[in-house]
Amino acid sequence: MNNKTISPLEEYKAIPADNSDEIDLRELFSVIWSGKWIILATTVLFAAISAGVALYQPNIYHSEATLAPAEEAQGGGLSGLASQFGGLASLAGVSLGGGNKADKSQLALEVLKSRQFISKFIETHHILPDLMADKKWDASSNKVIYDPAIYDASTTTWVREVKPPLQSKPSMQEAYSVFQKLITVTNDTKTGMVTLAIEHKSPYIAKQWVDWLVEDINSEMKTRDVEEATRSTEYLNHQIQQTNVADIRTVLFNLIEEQTKTIMFANVRDEYVFKTIDPAVVPELKAKPKRALIVVLGIVLGGIFSVFFILVRHFFKTEK
Questions:
Q1: Residue 49 three-state SS
Q2: Is residue 246 within 8 Å of 279, Cβ to Cβ?
Q3: In sequence order, what are the beta bridge partners of 150?
Q4: Are 239 and 92 in contact (CB under 8 A)?
Q5: pLDDT tens digits for 252-293?
């Protein structure tokens, strides 16, 4: 009797193949084709819904301005003093930092995006209804139509229903969160150019807000520098009275001169931190929504959903 040893590989090959789990592409296409009317109807339904959603969405307009850091006329003087009299100034307890327009513009951008600045901006220009209750823009009358469930324009009262701690009138925290979604600040680190943009349902409001933001940030930074220079001048005058060292007094007098230049420079120029290179304009074309894209995505989603539904239904039928 011949006892031949069978290897595991030969034993595995001898097992008949079970093709029950393999995907039959012909059957797959047949199942999909059999449900073609369901796919067509579902796709048309999704297309109609997406078209309705796209048409219901109000137009959003985008307005932007291109800004450049303004020249720092007084920076050279402070830098020169820092290199020449830095050691002596430290003896008097005075720090000579030297002006840096890049640092000042970066600081201005951070201030521009801060909660305090934006809250002040909203309150100063009384734009809370246009920010929180706008529904659509009427081009014929160039007026914003407010949502009557949120704001009653005839009586200028807030009527929205909210749960505590929220109130009918939106808080500055709510307004800040909404405003952040409308504003875009882009800084090109290579050129130093800044693009400030606003999106709104009204193209005129979008343009106006950009103009106001540029004016307000220049005014804010100017006020800060003037106040700081004024306080520094008072401090330096006090220090002059406290010392008799000629070299230190020279440094202090030079510092007072530079602070005086700062105040003068701020008072004679409106574009203090940012100079407008390309001002904002009233956009003629909408930026959003992309209605054609919304409809196309709806059609694709409807087709995918219907095919998936047909395949799942066929799978459960074959499993029974």
A1: helix
A2: no
A3: none
A4: yes
A5: 778 877 888 877 877 778 888 899 999 999 998 988 888 788
d(CA 229, CA 46): 64
Which whole-number Å values give the CA distances from 138 to 112, 145, 160, 221, in the listed order? 30, 7, 22, 36
204 and 280 in contact (C-beta within 8 Å)?
no
Neighbour-count burial of 158, counting CB atoms closer than 10 A to its CB (0-12 exposed, 13-18 middle, 19+ buried) = middle
Pair type for strands 134-138 and 183-187: unpaired
pTM of the model: 0.73
Could you tell me which residues are beta bridge partners of residue 187?
194
Give residues with Cβ within 8 angstroms of 311, minimum separation 6: 28, 31, 32
Question: Furthest-apart CA pair in the chain: how many Å?
Answer: 125
Query: Do residues 297 and 50 make contact, with C-beta atoms less than 8 angstroms apart?
Result: yes
* Mean pLDDT, contiguous 10-residue spans, the chain (320 residues): 53 50 69 82 86 84 92 48 48 49 80 94 94 90 91 91 89 94 90 91 95 94 86 82 77 80 79 90 88 85 85 76
Per DSSP, 63 falls in state: E
Looking up tokens 């339904």 gives 45
